[in-house]
Design brief:
The complex is a heterodimer. Chain A is of the alpha+beta class. Chain A is about 35% helix and about 35% strand. In chain B, about 40% of the residues lie in helices and about 15% in strands. Chain B contains 24 helices and 20 strands. In chain B, strands 3-2-4-5-7-6 form a six-stranded parallel β-sheet. In chain B, strands 11-10-9-12-13-14 form a six-stranded parallel β-sheet, with helices on both faces. A six-stranded parallel β-sheet of chain B has the order 16-15-17-18-20-19, sandwiched between helices. In chain B, α3 (about 50-65) runs parallel beside α5 and α3 crosses α19. The N and C termini of chain B lie far apart (about 80 Å). Classes of the chains: A alpha+beta, B alpha/beta. The interface of A and B includes residues 39, 43, 54 and 84 of A.
Chain lengths: ~210, ~575
């Protein structure tokens, strides 16, 4: 079976730049997670994805939903590109009027997870003890079993989700497979969005005072 | 409180935004708005164009010379899609527009109703903001927000898609004024660190070069730029859209940058030690080969749009903010300086270009009329104080090379988009945006025919556009490239032209044709002294080439001054 290409978090262009401060930002490609916060208005998703299309960058995963702040939407997007490109993408996303903030991160700067569902053949599973062993080993859960198929859920990093998939696939067990795409939190002690919103609130007060 | 229709609310909102001139074309999905407009003819001067593309270009011309927001009203479907070229043009050239399109009723949205086009999504990548007004209650807010977004920060076009039910619904109208949007920082303000770092670099520069972009005009920063440049005594080069941002005849103005710009500022770009870019975006027509562009120099970039920093050229010191403020601030910190030797070093390049190109172009003694001599003569006859509108192609490049500017907001040209057909309607808009100034349009026979129907608008409005038709019976710029780079295969560039005198006559526009240079000065005087529009057809050399040229892929300092046959 052809080995699946995972989105990689280290540069595969030069292969030597991991951890080096002098990474060539114009050449070294790696996985970046771009987090975008916007006002919750219709049509923004296509505006954001259009920035990637125009720059010919493929989106590896995209997750969007309301954030913890009412009225503010969060987009978590992963893509493989150079750091220069990640910077350009975030700046061009921020140009959209209703986007509050866009920032890019590497894996080390984030806590990231995604969820996956595996629909597998129950007879295949029952006849191969390695499958149930692997499910336990990966910390996955069997959420439904019937004579035809079983449903497994797993939460974890992309690579481990694919590791389980590859194993199940090799056994010929997989009927369907679905991932949510990445969700992330920053490890930074600074909350960039809160800071931005506080600044804007102050600027709004000043703006009102100036207009009066 | 009285209830009014959404269309009437639109009228009141436009008036509240200070709109006095509109460009548009009616149609089914915008009829309630035109009905409301009927009762506001005194306050809102609606210019009926002959095609919606013309409405947008006219609004662009109006906005560029006046500094105000150009406003357009069209119907849905084809009316809206006909505005797309102009919206793209305005986006790339940072021109403030509000384009109001009619739309089918909310109940019909998404049903492929008659003349329904999803215009907000069509224009999303080429507009600064777009919004569909589905309820009359939204009108005051949406219009105010649209104008605020269009004119603030880096200006651009905004599209309002106005559903028919919102046009007819009744509402209690309350005026709104949007002056703050949480997610939008139009003028981000500068950081003192960037200012002092820029000043330090400038103070230590031995060979500074300032690149003047349209941002200077957009930021109303001509005076601030002049003070800055004179204090540091730095030579300048102007981009095509930045030409009137700095007086043409100033001793520090070394000419135009770019592919068909002047030799000295292009060559010196690769010799300077500090390159100071102000309100320009390092377009590929300015930089040529990026791999060798100003590699020896430290680069300071003043811009209001952070996404322009490092986009094409790596920048050492980005200075974010409105250049009206950042230039004034940095001027406080720079030392008065003199760079006589450096400035003098530009002269041999100017002399070389003058001897090989300019003198022959503007002072030919024999042969057919040349475009540059016509442009030079018009510029001199108007004391270098008129507004130059161009179409696109050789007429544009020659006009930008040979027209001179003493006043700001004097260049109306399609820079980034290169839209043929831009010139004629844009010139109409310019006459309305600056009614006290002379508006000279340089247009080729190709571009004129792309929007020639706007002669009807000129006839109706008696717009005093001085149309200088540089007729060479060719699509000249493409022909030149075919000559230089495609083995002289003149593939569909020769043009069989109509009788322009008859066309002008049909539109009641005075017209004269000049083929002999002996008549040129007198014909130009006649054109300028004629009240209202005038078409001066100049029969110019058919196969004339714009020189110098930086060939595609060449380095910025590798301009070609002569073509060897």
């Amino acid at each position: 079976m052809e080995k699946r290409q995972y989105p990689y978090s280290d540069c595969e262009t030069c292969g030597k730049c991991k951890g080096l401060p002098a990474r060539d930002t114009s050449k070294c490609e790696r996985l970046y997670t771009i987090m975008v916060f916007s006002e919750n208005v219709p049509g923004l998703l296509s505006q954001i994805t259009a920035v990637f299309t125009r720059r010919q960058v493929n989106i590896e995963s995209l997750n969007t939903c309301g954030s913890s702040i009412p009225g503010i939407h969060k987009y978590t997007i992963t893509c493989v590109c150079t750091e220069n490109m990640a910077k350009m993408l975030t700046l061009q996303i921020e140009r959209r009027i209703d986007v509050l903030q866009a920032r890019y991160y590497v894996d080390d700067e984030l806590f990231s997870l995604e969820a996956a569902l595996y629909k597998i053949s129950t007879p295949v599973m029952m006849n191969d003890s390695e499958i149930t062993e692997a499910i336990r080993h990966h910390g996955a859960h069997i959420v439904e079993v019937n004579p035809v198929f079983s449903t497994i859920e797993k939460i974890g990093r992309t690579t481990t989700i694919f590791d389980l998939f590859d194993l199940l696939h090799e056994k010929g067990a997989v009927l369907q497979f679905s991932r949510t795409g990445r969700i992330s939190l920053t490890k930074s002690k600074e909350e960039y969005l809160d800071k931005f919103l506080a600044e804007r609130e102050n600027e709004k007060i000043l703006s009102v005072q100036n207009n009066n | 409180m009285e209830k009014i229709t959404g269309s009437e609310a639109l009228m009141r909102s436009l008036i509240s935004e200070g709109v006095k001139t509109l460009f548009g074309y009616p149609g089914g999905a915008i009829m309630p708005v035109y009905d409301a407009l009927y009762n506001h003819k005194e306050e809102l001067n609606h210019i009926l164009v002959r095609h919606e593309q013309g409405a947008v270009h006219a609004a662009q011309g109006f906005a560029r010379v006046s500094g105000e927001v150009g406003c357009v009203i069209v119907t849905s479907g084809p009316g809206a899609t006909n505005t797309v070229t102009g919206i793209a043009d305005a986006m790339i050239d940072s021109t403030p527009l509000v384009v109001i399109c009619g739309q089918v009723g909310t109940y019909h949205l998404g049903t492929d109703a008659f003349q329904e086009v999803d215009v907000v999504n069509v224009t999303s990548p080429i507009s600064k903001w777009g919004y569909q007004i589905r309820s009359a209650e939204d009108i005051a807010w949406a219009v105010s927000r649209a104008f605020y977004i269009a004119k603030s920060g880096r200006p651009g076009p905004v599209v309002l898609d106005f559903t028919k039910n919102a046009q007819t619904e009744l509402l209690e109208y309350h005026s709104e004024k949007v002056g703050f949007i949480r997610s939008y920082r139009p003028d981000p303000g500068f950081t003192p660190d960037a200012i002092t770092a820029a000043a330090e670099l400038i103070n230590n520069a031995k060979k500074p070069l300032v690149l003047v972009g349209q941002g200077v005009e957009l930021g109303d920063a001509r005076k601030e730029l002049l003070d800055f440049v004179e204090k540091i005594d730095s030579p300048c080069g102007c981009t095509l859209l930045g030409l009137s941002g700095f007086p043409s005849e100033h001793r520090l103005n070394m000419g135009m940058l770019g592919m068909h710009g002047n030799l000295a500022p292009n060559v010196k770009t690769n010799q300077c030690d500090v390159l100071i870019a102000v309100g320009m975006r390092f377009d590929d027509r300015v930089t040529s080969n990026l791999k060798t562009y100003a590699k020896q120099a430290k680069i300071i970039h003043f811009d209001i749009d952070p996404s322009e920093f490092n986009k094409n050229v790596p920048v050492d010191i980005p200075v974010l903010g409105n250049c009206k403020h950042t230039l004034a601030e940095v001027t406080k910190y720079v030392q008065p300086n003199e760079h006589k030797e450096w400035i003098d070093s530009f002269r041999p390049y100017y002399q070389q270009e003058y001897d090989k190109v300019i003198d022959k172009a503007i002072h030919p003694q024999t042969g057919p009329l040349l475009m540059p001599e016509v442009i030079n003569a018009v510029s001199e006859a108007t004391n270098h104080e008129s507004i130059m509108v161009t179409d696109v192609g050789q007429n544009q490049m020659f006009a930008c090379r040979y027209f001179k500017f003493r006043k700001g907001r004097s260049v109306v040209s399609s820079g980034g988009c290169g839209t043929m057909g831009f010139g004629l309607p844009a010139a109409i808009g310019a006459t309305l945006g600056a009614p006290d100034r002379t508006v000279c349009l340089f247009v080729g026979d190709g571009g004129l025919q792309m929007t020639i129907q706007e002669l009807g608008t000129i006839m109706e409005q008696k717009s005093p556009v001085k149309i200088i038709l540089l007729n060479n019976n060719f699509l000249g710029n493409v022909r030149q490239w075919q000559y230089m780079f495609f083995d002289r295969h003149y593939s569909f560039t020769p043009m069989l032209n109509p009788d322009y005198e008859k066309i002008a006559s049909a539109y009641s526009i005075p017209c004269r044709t000049v083929a002999d240079r002996v008549e040129l000065a007198e014909a130009i005087n006649e054109m300028i002294n004629t009240t209202g529009p005038y078409l001066l057809q100049c029969v110019v050399k058919e196969e004339e080439n714009i020189l110098p040229i930086t060939p595609p892929g060449a380095n910025v300092d590798e301009m070609v001054l002569e073509i060897n046959d």
